[in-house]
Design a protein that fits this description.
By secondary structure, the protein is mainly alpha-helical. It is about 30% helix and about 5% strand. The chain starts with a strand and ends in a 7-residue tail after the last helix.
Length: about 475
Amino acid sequence: MSADVEFGPDADAEDAEENQGILAGYTYLGQFIDHDLTFDPASSLDRQNDPDALVDFRTPRFDLDCVYGRGPDDQPYLYRDDGIRMLLGRKLTGNPDDPSARDLPRNPAVAGEPSRALIGDPRNDENVIVSQLHAAFLRFHNRLVDVMPGAVFVDLQRLVRWHYQWVVLHDFLPTIVIKDVINDVLPHIVKKTDPATDPPKLTVFKKPKNNAFIPVEFSVAAYRFGHSMIRPFYRLNTTLPKPFSIFPVDTTGVPNGDIIEADESLRGFREFPSPWAIDWRLFFPQTGVKPVLAGATNRVQPAYKIDTSLVAPLTNLPDVPPPAMLALRNLLRGLQMGLPSGQAVAAFMGVHVLGDDHLVVGKATEEDSEKNPSVATLSPDFGGNAPLWFYILSEAQQQFTKDSSPIRLGPVGGRIVAETFVRLLLEDSQSFLNQAPRWKPFEAFRAANGEFRMADLMKQARLAVDIQS
């Protein structure tokens, strides 16, 4: 389950593995959301895990505790002295659209140790892209401070959370899940009403008897779909001369190739070069702007397709205990957690069960689609018994018709993800679905067509008054 790596002058050319329906920013927004919902530091591939014994040290709510931590009283080092504004890091350069771009606040490097981020969840510094996404949420909070002078912290925090929750429901989910599932689970979106008039309809994730929880089928299988969306390289802005690799990789033997040093990769947990300010116009769709898809430094970057292939750098993850192959780690995790097969979950959900001949391993490209082998030919154990994570990726791959066709999560994967998100919002008494189901983002924050998407949140973050030196 690996894909070839792009190198050289063609890195800005259109790529058959790109998913033209989903831009690259949603890969990392998905990672950010995951970090907001879950944190299980005790989980390990080295031991058998009991799903009933797993402890989630992150609240299973869309409450941005990865940003706010435990609040200004308990973690004042995340905030400015007023206890209202979020503390920002050093200025970044390289994005002419955002001269006030900021890094995360960091500890100073001492005695050769890297400069670690001072944030509510250290995982949001694990790569350059998610770290700057986190920094954008810090600035978006400060933007709310600007437009609501005199507001107390809890009111500001609530409204930031609600704008974020709106993006999750109205932008992220419709981007990564097929329309039929969205229309079924969130009828107010297709009807252009509101959740009070047309409430969500959940058929799989029923109301829990006690506290809200995250299903193991979501955390160990369905939500790992984002691994297939990762590109091997990303262009951060239009001023840098080249894209950067996600990890340091040895490209010896590749034309014009060489070993990409750690400082030239997007690895995290360190202070990266200041000219690496991300131009988010290359990562999220801008309302009313026709994107540049290939052949220029200002091209937008689609995510890779949701299919049964992962890019080559993910076959050898750096700095992890064996196994270092991400696909194998995901498959072993599902096995150790005792997940049902994809066919069993599809049958339980009452959707069409895919036959073994449709469950193939490989890229969703015109070049590869005819030669991708069935999973059952790789091992008889997989016949009628495909791992759930693989099944969900393969289910999405059924949408492939040609290289430019968009691919989203299908009936099984899409419903698990959509219903988990909506159920968590419904079980959160402080979410906008419960507190104010007819609420909408600030009118001044919305695009001309009335929508509020991640690009609009980023735009407001850029407008925050920069009072730090």
